[in-house]
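> forwarded from #structure-qc
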């Protein structure tokens, strides 16, 4: 049982127009508008309360301005996946759902789990993340248009082709934006240079890791694997031994890591050899790929931690 000496845990439920907060073990229930003035007033209140943990649920970007304001003020903010919050609420028997209930559930999540705190996201990092998000949107639209073209009449197919050409040009433009953003930051450029030395790791993978996994190089191998969601978890009960599965983590990072691994197991000698050994040992292809994803991630983490290029990791 936690006590007051353990510190204050604050949950913030974010909606388009408002911010609802509550806390444990002492309740500080309040509501603020989700705008610049509300962010500053909430920051002032939290600086006065000096919480040990502040938990915010990712809300499609609605939380970003608030998180930036709180983080730059030195407040301990953790942003969690909405599924984590829902699963936790079910686990503790909270079935009702209101903004204020969500806030206290987030505070209880912070008290019980103590999720990883996010590093401060400065303007450059925010810009890089925005460009990556826009690129993903363009790629999704391109895929959808190509699928529609298969069922379209000749007249509509012509219009779709024009849109496809435009989307492809915009994707090339975002690729250039990503490259310029990385080159303009000496720190990112150095990290990108190290990561790009790995056979199979391309510019989009590097940009995604820089923007959405800033912890890379600062955690140990177990922590970074769990953070991304490439650690297999047991599914055992009594005498039953279920298949180990990965879950949770940062889906966008895991997606680009998966694609990089598919390339690496063909062109990277270390990953290619590891993949072949796993298959020879009777592992399923999917299991072998996930194992190689984790190996690639751990290697990247060690390279940034030790400031080593890929060649130095082959010894």
């Amino acid at each position: 049982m936690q006590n007051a000496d353990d510190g204050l845990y604050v949950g913030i439920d974010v909606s388009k127009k408002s911010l609802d907060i509550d806390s444990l073990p002492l309740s500080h229930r309040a509501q603020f508008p989700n705008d610049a003035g509300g962010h500053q007033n909430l920051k002032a209140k939290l600086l006065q309360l000096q919480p040990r943990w502040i938990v915010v649920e990712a809300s499609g970007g609605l939380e970003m301005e608030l998180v930036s304001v709180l983080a730059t003020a030195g407040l301990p903010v953790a942003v969690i996946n909405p599924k984590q919050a829902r699963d936790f609420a079910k686990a503790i028997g909270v079935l009702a759902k209101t903004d204020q209930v969500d806030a206290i559930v987030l505070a209880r999540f912070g008290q019980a789990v103590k999720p990883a705190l996010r590093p401060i996201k400065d303007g450059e990092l925010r810009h890089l993340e925005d460009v990556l998000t826009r690129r993903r949107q363009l790629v999704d639209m391109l895929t959808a248009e190509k699928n529609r073209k298969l069922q379209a009449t000749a007249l509509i197919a012509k219009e779709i082709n024009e849109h496809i050409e435009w989307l492809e040009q915009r994707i090339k433009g975002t690729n250039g934006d990503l490259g310029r953003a990385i080159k303009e930051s000496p720190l990112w450029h150095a990290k990108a240079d190290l990561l790009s030395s790995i056979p199979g790791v391309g510019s989009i993978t590097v940009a995604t890791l820089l923007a959405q996994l800033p912890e890379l190089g600062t955690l140990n191998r177990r922590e970074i694997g769990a953070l991304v969601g490439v650690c297999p978890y047991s599914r055992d009960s009594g005498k039953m031994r279920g298949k180990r599965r990965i879950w949770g983590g940062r889906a966008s990072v895991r997606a680009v890591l998966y694609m990089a691994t598919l390339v690496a197991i063909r062109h990277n000698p270390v990953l290619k050899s590891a993949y072949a050994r796993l298959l020879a040992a009777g592992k399923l292809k999917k299991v072998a790929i996930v194992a190689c994803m984790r190996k690639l991630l751990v290697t990247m983490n060690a390279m940034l931690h030790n400031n080593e290029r890929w060649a130095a990791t082959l010894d």
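QC bot note: The two ends are 49 Å apart (CA to CA). The mean pLDDT is 85.
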